[in-house]
Amino acid sequence: MVTPIIGRGPDVTGRVNTGPSETRPAGRVTAEVLADKQASIRTPADAINVMRTRMEQRLQEAMGGQSKAVSGADKYAEQAQPPSASDVASVILGFVQNRLQQEADGGADVEQLTNLLSQARAGIEKGYAEARDQIVVLGMMNETLSGEIDEGFNLIQDGLLNLERLFLGKEPEADNPTETG
After folding, report:
1. How far apart are CA 60 and CA 123, in angstroms?
2. Do the strands 16-17 and 23-24 form a parallel or antiparallel pair, or are they unpaired?
3. For residues 81 and 17, what is the distance between their CA atoms, to the nearest angstrom?
4. What's the pTM value of the predicted model, to 2 decimals?
5. Which alpha helices (H) appear in 64-109, and where do they start and end?
6. pLDDT tens across 114-151, in order?
């Protein structure tokens, strides 16, 4: 659950001004921001967009994404329907693949690429967990939405296995149940 931070903290230099006398930690949701989001989140489509945006933010933070990275939010902002699980997975996996390709082209070794994939997994898991929490807090979670979120998460996990195979030359562990020597 996201809780507000009150007062001046050690991270005061990292805070952004949101009003004449108001400061809040950068990247954290305050009670006021949550209230604003509650007012604007009225449909499951809005809830999915919150989930996707939060997950993209965490992934970019985890992988050191550049600000020039294309956000899926722009693509889906004008659609009447929320993005499908495969749409969300495509955006996320596209970001991860581009980042891995950039590092591989720059001469990254297998250890560096493995570390980057681990960061991607951690960012995705953190983003999905935070987004689910936000949707639950907003009272928007239902069985259908939960199923769609799970489907997107599973598609991303499958895609990460494919990227692991592509960039690291590894077969998934399930395919190699025994080791021979």
Report:
1. 8
2. antiparallel
3. 34
4. 0.57
5. 72-76, 85-105
6. 999 999 999 999 989 988 998 898 888 899 889 999 99
